[in-house]
TrEMBL record:
GO terms for molecular function: D-Ala-D-Ala dipeptidase activity; metal ion binding; metallopeptidase activity. InterPro entries: A_A_dipeptidase (IPR000755), Zn_M74/Hedgehog-like (IPR009045). It catalyses: D-alanyl-D-alanine + H2O = 2 D-alanine. Keywords: Cell wall biogenesis/degradation, Dipeptidase, Hydrolase, Metal-binding, Metalloprotease, Protease, Zinc. This is D-Ala-D-Ala dipeptidase. The keyword Cell wall biogenesis/degradation applies. One of its GO terms (biological process) is proteolysis.
Length: 191
């Protein structure tokens, strides 16, 4: 798994500031455009299976809630993961080696994956009050640990955090500075 040195440095700061019994479980960081295309297509097939009634435009909009299209610069000039400035992660219990409960799986393409879902929809879930509170606490710990190091969270995915990429810049109304890490590597290698 690859990322930028500055991202790794901040992730290390996150780890050092977590409670002693918690660690970070990293799912994904840098992605090539080819990998991003595969993910986009896989998500599209999954959504078609679960929502066959959607028009092509509705389908495209639904997929884009969870994956950037690698060749469509209208939303992101460089897909966040392709920049090397995005990371997908969760917390885990160091003693049990188990991921904490976040209420949905990584890459779950439902509204339950929205970072604030359990803050606003307590009555709309099938979760017990106890589990709902555990999920809220886990999401809050991850959110505050990451944002304290300058990351921003993609609101549709509790696991996705960005720093220095298009998504980060868009959310903070700043200029972004991480271009495509893939293109930088190809340039160094002489294409």
């Amino acid at each position: 798994m690859y990322t930028r040195k500055s991202i790794l440095k901040r992730i290390n700061n996150v780890v050092h500031n977590l409670p002693d019994n918690l660690g970070l479980l990293i799912f994904d960081a840098f992605r090539t455009k080819e990998t991003q295309r595969d993910i986009f297509n896989r998500f599209q097939l999954e959504i078609i299976k679960n929502k066959p009634h959607l028009s092509d435009e509705q389908l495209h909009q639904e997929v884009r809630k969870f994956a950037a299209h690698p060749d469509e610069p209208s939303r992101f000039a460089v897909p966040p993961h392709n920049s090397g400035g995005s990371i997908d992660l969760a917390l885990y219990d160091i003693n049990t080696q188990q991921q904490l409960d976040f209420g949905s799986d990584f890459d779950d393409m439902t509204v339950v994956s929205a970072t604030d879902y359990f803050e606003n929809n307590i009555k709309n879930t099938n979760f017990s009050i106890t589990r709902t509170n555990i999920v809220k606490i886990n999401r809050r710990i991850l959110y505050h640990a990451m944002t304290s190091q300058g990351f921003v969270n993609f609101e549709n995915e509790w696991w996705h955090y960005s720093l220095g990429d298009c998504l980060w810049a868009q959310m903070l109304n700043l200029d972004w500075y991480y271009l495509s890490l893939e293109q930088e590597v190809l340039k160094i290698m002489g294409d």
